[in-house]
Design a protein that fits this description.
The chain has 12 helices and 19 strands. It is of the alpha/beta class. Helix 5 crosses helix 8, helix 6 crosses helix 7 and helix 9 crosses helix 11.
């Protein structure tokens, strides 16, 4: 019997390194295969974690190649999977259709045998129940640890992981803790936002933990992390979809807040003041639960720092804004839209097919005409070389030298001519595809929703770079539109 060996660690073996577990299983199955005269022709070792079938590349590869084998050898049937019923059904049905047996040291399952198939399904059901119990125990254990003040998970900036007895906790890193205090002080006392704080740190040469620059997202995470007050938070929050314009959260799980075993870096009063400021400054995101509010989402970039420009609604107007402090000034979004539409019109003029009588002014066509003339001239020169050889003007060595040089020039000219002709052909075809799209955008843009505008622009535009100087008048700005390649 030719078989594939499948190795995967179980949750019951969490305390053992994965390679040690797989090595031990492989040794057991190899001995078993020798005793049972089973020939192992392939080994699939699953080293990634995850219960989902589609997060395990080796089992997917095994199922794809199942017809190569007569059996799959594994330490236990639940090693193949104990996820949801749909995924278990995919595994068992694939092996059944390929007429592949499941062989374990305890039992062999022939899925085309009704009794074995029923037993394998029962085993899969029991494995799912066991997985649920394990998950439930893990969650209860984590919650119990959180109630007792243990910090679960990686250490936030300002702390390092530590232990008090068997309990996981945090220990302060003094130099990082001082940066955390500075962030809260700048935010609550100096009225500086995350962008301003990150800009100040960059200008002062203050780097993050791994030596990189500070970003607004990192500042926001610190400002919202209650661990800095000496608390442990267990559970999750998610934004309430019923109130998209405010910072309203509802529990996804029951929230537990307990006194941690670790020391505080920030006083509770300072932390609470920071949360009040955060709520008052909340800005609705560009994309709220799939509803795009910003026509330039994913397109408009700051030409100074390279980051995405944001939508900034203020009173009855909307602006485009770079959130990196010290970069470019913001501008009314309507003006930027007009600028983009103007460049669309210029692009339409550029790619509109040129009338035959006007082709003499087209730069690409001029280059092709010049190269054609150059190729003809070089061919005539080549003919003259033969005449010079025949009448004795050139010796054989001079003839060969001049002929070699001329042929190289002809090859280069013809190569470039071929490239430009292909480019002209491709541009003509691509332009025919782009022209109706640009016409459609120009005609329907004003009546479209922001989401529709964004969708239309992304069909033809790759990127828009924005710049507005500090001293520029309100209506003066510069944008460079990069269109999708049509060459």
């Amino acid at each position: 019997m030719q078989a594939a060996m499948y190795l995967r660690k179980s949750r019951a073996e969490e305390n053992e390194p994965i390679q040690e577990t797989l090595k031990r299983h492989k040794k057991i199955l190899t001995s078993f295969s020798i005793e049972q005269s089973i020939e192992i022709i392939a080994v699939y070792e699953e080293v990634v974690s995850g219960d989902s079938l589609f997060s395990r590349p080796q089992i997917l590869k095994l199922l794809e190649e199942a017809e190569r084998y007569q059996a799959v050898l594994c330490i236990d049937i639940d090693r193949l999977g104990r996820g949801n019923m749909k995924e278990q059904g995919i595994i068992l049905e694939t092996l059944k259709n390929a007429n592949v047996k499941i062989v374990t040291p305890n039992k062999t399952y022939d899925l085309n045998n009704e009794l074995d198939e029923t037993y394998s399904e029962f085993q899969a059901f029991m494995a799912r129940q066991e997985l649920k119990l394990i998950r439930s125990r893990m969650q209860r254990g984590i919650r119990k640890s959180a109630e007792e003040g243990s910090h679960m998970g990686p250490a936030p900036y300002g702390y390092k992981s530590a232990r008090i007895g068997k309990a996981a906790t945090l220990e302060i890193i003094p130099e990082e803790a001082e940066i955390v205090r500075q962030i809260f002080r700048m935010y609550t006392e100096e009225n500086k936002g995350p962008g301003s704080i990150s800009f100040t740190f960059r200008t002062q040469g203050i780097t993050a933990r791994k030596g990189g620059a500070w970003h607004m997202a990192s500042i926001r995470r610190i400002l919202s992390n209650q661990a800095y007050t000496g608390k442990v938070v267990y559970g999750k929050l998610m934004r309430d979809k019923k109130d998209k314009e405010k910072v309203v959260f509802r529990p996804l799980d029951e929230i537990l807040i307990s006194d941690g075993l670790h020391p505080a870096i920030i006083e509770q009063e300072v932390f609470d003041r920071a949360q009040t400021i955060r709520e008052s400054r909340y800005l609705p995101p560009q994309n709220i639960y799939g509803e795009i509010k910003y026509p330039f989402a994913g397109l408009l970039k700051c030409s100074v720092c390279g980051l995405a420009m944001s939508r900034f609604p203020y009173k009855e107007y909307e602006y485009v804004l770079c959130r990196t402090r010290g970069c470019v000034r913001m501008c009314n979004m309507k003006l930027v839209e007009r600028g983009v539409l103007s460049q669309l019109k210029l692009e339409l003029d550029r790619i509109t097919p040129i009338a035959p009588e006007a082709r003499r002014d087209d730069e690409l066509h001029i280059s092709i005409t010049v190269l054609q003339g150059e190729a003809d001239r070089l061919n005539m020169q080549k003919q003259k070389l033969y005449e010079f050889l025949e009448d004795g003007t050139y010796t054989s060595s001079v003839f060969r030298e001049r002929m070699s040089l001329t042929e190289k020039k002809i090859t280069a000219a013809l190569g470039e001519l071929s490239r430009l002709q292909e480019k002209e052909k491709n541009m003509s075809k691509a332009s025919q595809d782009f022209i109706p799209v640009i016409h459609s955008v120009l005609q329907s843009y004003d009546q479209a929703t922001p989401a529709q505008k964004n969708e239309m622009l992304k069909k033809i535009i790759k990127r828009i770079d924005y710049y507005k100087g500090k001293e520029d008048p309100p209506k003066v700005f510069d944008i460079q539109v990069s269109f999708l390649d049509i060459e």
